Amino acid sequence: MPIGGEIGFATLPEHVHRKSAKKGFDFSIMVVGESGLGKSTLVNCLFLGDLYKDRKIPSVDKLIERTVNIEKKQLDIIEKGIKLRVTIVDTPGFGDSINTTGSFQVVENYIDEQFNQYFKDESGLNRKNIVDNRIHCCLYFISPFGRGLSQLDIQFMKRLNSKINIVPVIAKADSLTAIEVAQLKKKILRELEENGISIFKIPECDSDEDELYRIKDKEIRESIPFAIIGSTTSIDLNGRRIRGREYPWGIVDIQDERYSDFIKLRTFLSLHMQDLKDSTSDVLYENYRTNYLAQLNGGRIAELDSSGLSADRLLQMKQEEIRRMQEQLMMMQEQLRQTSRP
After folding, report:
1. Mean pLDDT of the chain
2. Is the CB of residue 137 less than 8 Å from the CB of residue 276?
3. At what residues does the UniProt record annotate the site feature described as Important for dimerization (predicted)?
4. Please, which of 31, 284, 300, 339 could form a disulfide with 39 given CB 3.0 to 4.6 Å?
């Protein structure tokens, strides 16, 4: 006769949630796009801060010769007991100079540096407190005035879509009518497909998700690329304070979903933060790690690849190389322990 009762595993998710909430979460966002598209304003709107109050806007002459810089801002958020440390990586100067080739290289180098540092940390002796500075999401700003993707947009996304989760954003959506926004979204998606550019795809909902979540997720998925209106200006509208823009013909609330996808973008980042992190870790970083290990072996794997061996055999060889490296690392750790004993 089986003994009745419960083992207690049902409370495991609660314990995991409590422990994770206490430890906190890290998330890194990169914002990329030409100057004047409202990147800083949107970041301030998303995180309810003023992260760029000390930034100076360069003159037109300096913009022409300007090079791309990498600027990092960190923000600690505590909401309902959940700790979140957000790192915002901005790229002022992107696309400003006449020769934009350097724009790609600076951003790509930074992404590779974060992958490389993470690889070194997880291969080191102390792996308990690894800091994850890898970029989990790239908000790429597209101008509403070009009526589609520019060559700069295409070249950047084509070059980096295998290293970063790209989320396209149409800037300054209040410069377009609702019909123009819908047409521009379709054109951008078509041009992305024509140029073989992969953007982040929201995973399908699990079968046990409730209907309300499914509807919301479907709305977000169909809104990509997000058409955004940003503003940090507080305006009185019918007795309530809103963040919006005031025009001769009226006031636009940036959270009004009839005109802006701001709420959908914010909800997307909240609902799919872990999906973005998983994609970075399981797909983008693993691709980098595999290529890096191949280079460490003097291109041996690449040479074998051209010899006609099967993909399964190549994968097996890569796993053997990784196992040998791990064994060497364990031997080094044991030697260090032996020498440290009195």
Report:
1. 79
2. yes
3. 145
4. 31
